[in-house]
Specification:
Distance between the termini: 60 Å
Strand content: 15-25%
Shape: rod-shaped
Structural class: alpha+beta
Strand order of the largest sheet: 7-6-4-3-8-5-9
Order of helices and strands: HEHHHHEHEHEHEEEEHE
Oligomer: single chain
Number of helices: 9
């Protein structure tokens, strides 16, 4: 009898491992921006700690009735009430919840506005010239934009203030970044991206046109959620949704 009980218990424990309670996300569930920022910043351990808090909150609302009915049926009980108390104690201590479906839904539903600010090999941002720039610096900035970014229209390559930098607009695949376990430090920039010049310290910039016409290339970039580095692009320009529809490709 003891041997039979041991085998039965082993089967039950295997059932617990193979049949977690799976929490699926609702179509309205979205990852909070503060957690998205942690993923973008590569703070994956901190992200998991905060996500764990969300799992604990969700745990309180779980309805175990269907899972309990499935367990009872799998082991020959008419209903869960017939399961002996000693077995229920084992179940309550050993059953587990799979939140991966909820996390996946929250990640995929997040469509925050993201900015990627390309960085040259010198460590400088790609800057637009303005009327305040003395020569020859203004000429150098204009030549760089023309030679490396294909921007040579005077209406597009001149900014109102200094510190106006080329900025790629779009969104990110947070699920891909989280699975890679690597902080995104580079992007693949191309003429398919929506770009403009933005000055985040005073909310100015260039004409809000799709500007970059250079070759497709991998380049280092500072990536952040719009509005977390001073004045946001959306706050400044009030752009329509398609301007942010581009998926920024990290590399």
């Amino acid at each position: 009898m003891e041997k039979f009980q041991s085998k039965r218990r082993t089967r039950m424990m295997q059932y617990l491992n193979d049949n977690p309670y799976v929490v699926y996300g609702d179509y309205r569930d979205v990852l909070p921006d503060r957690l998205a920022e942690l993923i973008i910043a590569g703070e994956f351990d901190t992200f998991r700690e905060e996500w764990w808090e969300i799992e604990l909150e969700t745990y309180d609302y779980i309805d175990w009735s269907f899972w309990e009915s499935e367990f009872a049926d799998a082991f020959g009980y008419e209903n869960f009430e017939q399961v002996p108390e000693r077995i229920k104690d084992i179940l309550f201590d050993s059953r587990w919840v799979d939140f991966s479906g909820l996390l996946r839904t929250c990640l995929r539903n997040w469509r925050g506005n993201v900015c990627a600010r390309p960085v040259k090999r010198s460590g400088e941002y790609i800057e637009f010239p303005c009327g305040w720039d003395p020569q020859p610096n203004a000429g150098y900035l204009a030549r760089y934009l023309k030679d490396h970014c294909g921007i040579d229209d005077p209406w597009q390559n001149e900014a109102g203030y200094q510190d106006t930098y080329l900025t790629v607009l779009g969104t990110l695949d947070l699920e891909e970044i989280l699975e890679s376990g690597k902080k995104p430090t580079h992007i693949i920039i191309s003429s398919d991206d929506f770009t403009l010049g933005a000055c985040t310290w005073n909310g100015s910039g260039t004409c809000a046109n799709d500007q970059y016409k250079g070759r497709t290339r991998k380049i280092a970039a500072e990536i952040f959620i719009d509005g977390t580095r001073g004045y946001g692009v959306q706050e400044t320009y009030g752009l329509v949704g398609p301007c942010w529809a581009n998926e920024i490709k990290v590399a």
